[in-house]
Amino acid sequence: MISINQNQTGYLLVALAAILFAISGACAKALFNAGVTAYQLIQLRTTLAFMGLILWLAIRNPSHLKISLSDLPYFICLGVFGIGAAQFFYLFAISKINVAAAILLHYTGPVFVALYTACIQRQAVSSKVLAAMVGTLVGSYFVVGAYDLEMLSLNRVGIVGGILAAMAFATYSLLSAHGMKKYSSWTVVLYGMLFAALVWHVLFPPLEAFRPDYSRQQWLMILYIGLGGTIVPFGLYFEGIKRIKPTYASITATLEPIAAGLVAAMFLGEHMALLQIFGGLLVVVSVVWLQIMHS
Fold first, then answer.
1. 289 with 128: CB under 8 angstroms?
2. What distances in angstroms separate CA 90 from CA 44, 106, 124, 127, 151, one per listed residue?
3. pLDDT, tens digit, for every residue of 2-27?
4. Which of 65, 201, 232, 255 has the CA that lies 20 to 30 A from 128?
5. Distance between CA atoms of 185 and 183, rounded to whole angstroms?
6. Which residues have a Cβ under 8 Å from the Cβ of 35 and sit 6 or more positions away?
7. Rounded to 5°, angle at Cα 154 from 148 and 156
8. What DSSP designation does 66 have?
9. Rounded to an integer, what distance in angstroms lies between the CA atom of residue 295 and that of residue 283?
10. How many CB atoms lie within 10 A of CB 213?
């Protein structure tokens, strides 16, 4: 019998999380093709994720539900400008451009983290980190088809959404790292998701997205996105980083855009041009290199 050690288990858990996230992106695109809007799906996803997560934590570990009232402003910022914004722009980009391209743009978030540390925290940027950032930007140029003016004009709104998703992802990363100095990762995600859900019930009519006219297949995809494509992969990812370094986990998670591209090609008929695939590989390699440099 083949034995699996702690490190191998950690990599497997993170890889599985990346695949589940990727399937979630493909399900979202299928719903968008059926007429569901990004505004509706973000309300559905954040609400279902929060409800499922608070129920699970209440049963498994109620201590994770406790926070200090003085930290509410922090959790509001995390939910609105971090989790809520990141998930909305991520879904919005998927609704406008290829799933793989949208996720690859989302994965340029570490570039904005590096820019933050350089410009705001005044930390020196090494030539290797700068090279990784340039590689990510050049790769993104090819991923979105900027070399083809016709493709670029068709994708412009989706590209902006993907870039904003990356910026919000960087915001979420920085804010969650701050919160996890005091709280567990589950507590940070729970309350961030709470305020992410609340803001979409304010900006969008409350419970408007919970319509009765979805088909059974659509409800299954919605439930998967809110639970199986959000809570489960978060759990797997957190279990993974208990066994391997967060940097290695982040690198392993770059499997997501590759898996998303394969799933979208098989089930949605989406395909990327050769130059877009080249750009995608360059983004993945650059993000991996950037993570190694920051380890």
1. yes
2. 14, 7, 30, 30, 20
3. 445 667 888 888 889 989 999 999 99
4. 255
5. 6
6. none
7. 90
8. -
9. 18
10. 5
